[in-house]
Amino acid sequence: MSRVxxxxxxxxxxxxxxxxxxxxxxxxxLRRSAQSMPEGVQTLLADVTQPQTLTEIVNIQPEILVYCVxxxxxxxxxxxxxxxxxxxxxxxxxxxxxxxHVFFVSSTGVYGQETDEWLDEGSPAIATHFSGxxxxxxxxxxxxYPSTILRFSGIYGPGRRRMLTLAQTPEQWPEKNGWTNRIxxxxxxxxxxxxxxxxxxxQLDPLYVVxxxxxxxxxxxxxxxxxxxxxxxxxxxxxxxxGNKRLSNQRMLASGYQFIYLDYIAGYKSLLDAMD
Length: 276
Known about the structure:
Elements: E1 3-7, H1 11-22, E2 26-31, E3 41-45, H2 57-60, E4 64-67, H3 76-94, E5 101-107, E6 118-119, H4 130-140, E7 147-152, E8 154-156, H5 162-167, E9 179-180, E10 182-184, H6 185-198, E11 207-210, E12 216-217, H7 218-228, E13 246-247, H8 250-254, H9 264-275
Parallel strand pairs: 1-2, 1-4, 2-3, 4-5, 5-7, 6-13, 7-11, 8-10
Antiparallel strand pairs: 9-12
InterPro entries: Epimerase_deHydtase, NAD(P)-bd_dom_sf, NAD(P)-dependent_oxidoreduct
GO molecular function, one term: 4-phosphoerythronate dehydrogenase activity
Organism: Methylobacillus methanolivorans
């Protein structure tokens, strides 16, 4: 059993908290709002961007920090505060605690290159937007800490219906047919939990790309979702595949992790079945 602090209890953090409690860990969830937590999770009301609210962390003495904060808005300033300054503030407090490992949920947005080549952990992170640059800035703060960076592709799952909804309106489909990569929320949370469980037995890598088995062009995904929902897109031409990148999950697989949803078909079928 470990004492785990989850900084940022949105959708991913809450699912991770549920899994860790079920596995016998002592879990504290840090969040700004006094919303309900899963049973067995201690709540710490604090704001990572406000250092004076973080002093109680020392009393928890967490051995493991999972930093999975979400920015409040898609802006450079919000990303700087949430990911760079927020992580800096939490790490500063935890310098006084018995911290053994940090898991930082980053983003595959750090790979700004557009290519048909497969990208993995060894590929250069060439960030072309502020979001990717801020993530790389936050990742650099972990130099010198026992840490693992988790670069997530697009998270989908219960409550995340954007692509399902978009598939219902073919006239709104994007003109560009770029590659898309995704990870089901349950696999994202389960993989972090798996690494925490295996920390003593497995030599953790400092970096993992967290994504499923099958990248595909976005129009292929939308057509499949439209077919599954009985949406007519006749007359809608398939644009040539152009843009974005394909991401490899071979390091995830090499860790021994067993996927819940191997690809978009398994993952989205579970969402569509839940809607019936």
